[in-house]
Design brief:
By secondary structure, the protein is an alpha/beta fold. It has 19 helices and ten strands.
Length: 498
């Protein structure tokens, strides 16, 4: 039978806080190991004759903390299995074994699998000293984070936040950048070093931007972000956006917002989408930021309407999207490979087909051109339909077939117009021409919607130039000849090439 591993917490750093039970276990142990000797209590214990074998050399041999912890646990398990029943093997860790101690978490997972008894003795954690020395009650709302986990979305300014494992200035810099995603640069934070350890404790209050300019970071350092009820601090959070939209739709909210339905704001969703596209075309990041917000508002409003009926919330929308992204990217989140964009797209399509199977929608029962949104603009819809049809094998062998078809459709359009066929017939022939042009775009790898948009922008710029030059002459397009305007049009074209 394997030896029992007893994990002992050394407390926050003051030898007087080491429990009597822990001290007895340490004194009676046949073998003693400590994760690191860089702890005030270890030095005191060794002065009293309680010697340790440390794993400090593992930190030097490995490139990252997960590898260090894995190696420590591997060695402890091997020693326990070799020690046999009756061996007293003690493993000491800073603070409390169950607070921010990765090796103990691994031991709790691995010991049962290997049939190794595990006993854990608590100890005073750095949290106990933090509550006392920093003067806050965790029941008011409290969040504990590892320095590596600090991101804007993880922070709620209404809760007290303690950040542990701030070992050095580089880690402090990463913490600072994470907090700055949500908090202003001058937000007051507190840095605590060796809390409760006589002669070593140091507490400093600094603006956030100075966090990584302080000296003295080490194994006993932490950062405290005091709670605040200032609502302006939450203005960058998604939760606050959800609250605002909910309030606008509430009985005490905005009368206009309360009256809206999916149908009444349907057009807004389309308009806001096109306004976003305009900022993309104009390469205008500042305006794009604003328009993306307006588009997001439409999504929030539609989601809020469904939340009010109990159908779903915006968080359900986010969940479904996250699940879809993970599932359809097995080359990122799974074990498949994708060497290029085309392979990634194939993975995406394969996972979409698998999703349909799971939902009872057998792919073979679906049309090859299914899945194209009904209300897409016609040019874009034609492009997507042709791509799907081509993927199913319904396509020209080469671009020569496209040119032949395009010439045929133009000829039929000319005939319809020349023969003065009814307007509907002429319109249908025009549609055939446009559909054939889309085929040509697909063959040369161009997006027809984008191509036409670029031409429209070019036309608009040139026409504005013509108007401006005429205005300088005291004229307008209405009282100018086509020849005059054509000269200015060519002038505009020349300037584009300069």
């Amino acid at each position: 039978m394997s030896a029992t591993i007893t994990v002992v917490g050394l407390g926050s750093g003051d030898p007087d806080r080491l429990t009597l039970g822990s001290l007895k276990r340490l004194q009676e142990a046949g073998e003693r190991y400590v994760r690191t000797k860089d702890h005030p209590v270890v030095a005191w214990l060794e002065q009293t004759g309680v010697e340790f074998t440390s794993f400090d050399e593992v930190y030097e041999a490995k490139d990252d903390f997960p590898s260090v912890y894995e190696e420590i646990v591997t060695r402890l398990l091997a020693r326990a299995e070799a020690g046999g029943d009756g061996t007293h093997l003690v493993y000491a860790v800073p603070g409390h074994p169950q607070v921010a101690e990765a090796t103990v978490k691994l031991l709790r997972e691995r010991c049962p699998e290997r049939g190794i008894p595990l006993d854990i003795l608590g100890g005073e954690s750095f949290l106990d000293e933090a509550f006392v020395r920093l003067g806050f009650d965790p029941i008011e709302g409290f969040l504990l984070l590892d320095a590596s986990e600090v991101r804007g979305e993880a922070i709620d300014p209404r809760r007290h936040t303690l950040i542990g494992q701030v070992y050095d200035q580089l880690t402090a810099s990463e913490v600072k950048l994470g907090l700055m995603e949500l908090l202003p640069d001058d937000y007051q934070v507190v840095v605590g070093h060796a809390l409760g350890v006589e002669g070593q404790e140091r507490i400093e209050r600094v603006p956030l931007f100075e966090l990584d300019r302080l000296d003295g970071y080490g194994n006993l350092s932490l950062v405290y972000v005091p709670a605040s009820e200032d609502e302006s601090l939450r203005i960058r959070s998604f939760q606050r956006l959800h609250e605002i939209v909910s309030i606008l739709r509430s009985p005490g909210g905005c009368p206009w917002d309360r009256e809206q339905t999916h149908e009444s704001i349907r057009k807004n969703l389309i308009e806001e989408t096109y306004e976003v596209l305009e900022t993309i075309d104009d390469d205008d990041p500042d305006h794009m930021r604003e328009e993306l917000g307006d588009l997001l508002l439409q999504i929030m409003l539609h989601s809020q309407m469904e939340e009010e009926t109990g159908a779903f919330t915006v968080y359900d929308v986010i969940q479904e999207l996250n699940e879809k992204l993970i599932y359809r990217h097995p080359h990122v989140f799974g074990n498949l490979n994708a060497e290029d964009a085309e392979a990634a797209l194939n993975n995406w399509e394969a996972m979409k087909a698998e999703e349909k199977k799971r939902k009872g929608l057998e792919p073979e029962r679906q049309s090859a051109i299914s899945g194209v949104p009904r209300d897409l603009p016609a040019l874009m819809k034609a492009y997507k339909l042709q791509k799907k049809a081509a993927k199913a094998g319904f396509d020209w062998e080469d671009i020569d077939g496209v040119w032949t078809k395009l010439e045929e459709e133009i000829r039929e359009l000319k005939e319809a117009v020349t023969q003065k066929q009814d307007p509907e017939a002429q319109e249908l022939e025009l549609g055939d021409v446009l559909f054939s042009v889309v085929n040509a775009a697909r063959y040369i790898g161009a997006d027809p919607e984008q191509a036409l948009s670029r031409t429209i922008r070019k036309f608009t710029q040139r026409f504005h130039y013509v108007e401006e030059r005429l205005r300088e002459q005291g004229k307008t397009p209405v009282d100018s000849t086509l020849a005059e305007m054509d000269v200015l049009w060519n002038e505009a074209k020349s300037k584009e090439r300069e």
